[in-house]
Amino acid sequence: MQAMTLRIIRAEYFLVEIPLRVRVEHALASRTESTSGFVVLTDDEDHLGLGEFVCRDYVTGEKPEDCLEYLDRLVHGLINRPIDEPPIFITGLWDAGHKAVGRQGALCAFELALLDLWGKQRGRPVAELLRPGVLQTDRLASYSAVYPFVSGAKLAALNVLYRTVIRAQQIKVKGTGRAADDASYVRRIRKAFPYPLDLRLDLNGSLSPGHAEGYFRHLSGSPTEVRWFEQPFPKDAWDASEAFQQQFAGELILCADESVCSMEDLTRAAAHGAFRAVNIRIAKNGGLVRSLAMYEQALASGLETQLGCLVGESSVLAYAGLHLAALADKLRYREGCFGNYLMKWDVIQPSLTFSRGGQVSFRHLPKAGLVPSFDIRRLRRRAVRSGVLGQRA
């Protein structure tokens, strides 16, 4: 294909508080709303590209203000600069840029908006542009349901939703690190379903190394039968992860999440055998191009992979995840596309929401760009803060 130059002539940002339908709690946080940062890039052909960042300071150490500050510096040097091959350009930003707080989220939002422009300029889905000939729109992706900390009527309502309405096949349960409590929770969930579940536990770093052996043996035994434990120890407890992954090498899978935010983290995880799997989250790992590179590196290192998401991501990041799922056919699990089940508001209408069985068709991918067309006025009305990026007096 003939090279087509892309020029950004304007960049705007919008901070939006997205309200959730339920309180979502896990070992590290509790929230009823989530802050998303949106970036809208305009090119010289009047295409609009949309990107999103979601910060969790307990994961990457970033706050929205950090990402906006980094974005402002980044965009200042790019207005009216010709960009010929966005994936190569994005990789160059990672290779040339210095590590700074705000970089992960800033590059994620900027990259997604740039890729959206690229696809719209060329009239093709981003997945097809990134890997020509790979995209098969007649396939389906299966997404997991997630149980936060709930009990009583809320647990009963989730059971009905996941069992009857969605008929979920794969479920992730948020754990506490307390063996008796987590085993009881898992048993209650399994009992509510008349069919077998592929169930895994996410501990968000809540497990103490001193209690780990008993915990793993308790939860992996009958009737709970959990074999996949996501981020059992705090993100910097590499020695504990390495010791217990090696001890239970043939029995359990420890999956890194908060511990692996960068390519360097991934290299360390593989070299030391601290995990057998990694949770790749586009918002956490700095965008679609970077996440795809980490997925391929994880496979090359013999690690299993899952596509994750952060609570409250809008359909922008959900569409980015669907592009990744379309290109990454060896993902063990996929999370995201909660759409209308979780969010009261979304910039993309209709929201990208999984259907019965947790399935999402790749036919939902837009015919051009990263996301379908959107109404920028929805962002302007909803924003708690907005502005233009890269301007200097």
Q: How is the topology of this model organized?
A:
Layout (H helix, E strand, L loop, with lengths): L5 E20 L4 E14 L4 E6 L10 H13 L5 E2 L2 H11 L6 H20 L3 H5 L9 E3 L2 E3 L4 H14 L4 E5 L4 H14 L5 E5 L9 H9 L7 E3 L7 H10 L5 E4 L6 H10 L4 E5 H4 L2 H13 L3 E5 L6 H13 L5 E2 L4 H4 L16 E3 L14 H7 L2 E4 L5
Parallel strand pairs: 6-7, 7-8, 8-9, 9-10, 10-11, 11-12, 12-13
Antiparallel strand pairs: 1-2, 1-4, 1-15, 2-3, 5-14
Helix pairs in contact: 1-3, 2-3, 6-7
What does this structure look like?
With 393 residues, the protein is of the alpha/beta class. The chain folds into two domains: 6-129 and 372-388, Enolase-like, N-terminal domain (Enolase-like, domain 1); 134-364, TIM Barrel (Alpha-Beta Barrel), CATH 3.20.20. It has 14 helices and 15 strands. It has helices at residues 64-76, 86-96, 103-122, 126-130, 152-165, 179-192, 212-220, 238-247, 263-272, 282-285, 288-300, 315-327, 339-342, 376-382, and strands at residues 6-25, 30-43, 48-53, 82-83, 140-142, 145-147, 170-174, 198-202, 228-230, 253-256, 277-281, 304-308, 333-334, 359-361, 385-388. The protein has an eight-stranded parallel beta sheet with strand order 6-7-8-9-10-11-12-13. Strands 1, 2, 3, 4 and 15 form a five-stranded antiparallel beta sheet that branches. The protein has a two-stranded antiparallel ribbon with strand order 5-14. Strand 9 (228-230), helix 8 and strand 10 form a beta-alpha-beta unit. Helix 1 crosses helix 3, helix 2 (86-96) runs antiparallel to helix 3 and helix 6 (179-192) runs parallel beside helix 7. The longest helix is centred in the N-terminal third of the chain and has 20 residues, at 103-122. The radius of gyration is 21 Å and the shape is globular. The two termini are 40 Å apart.
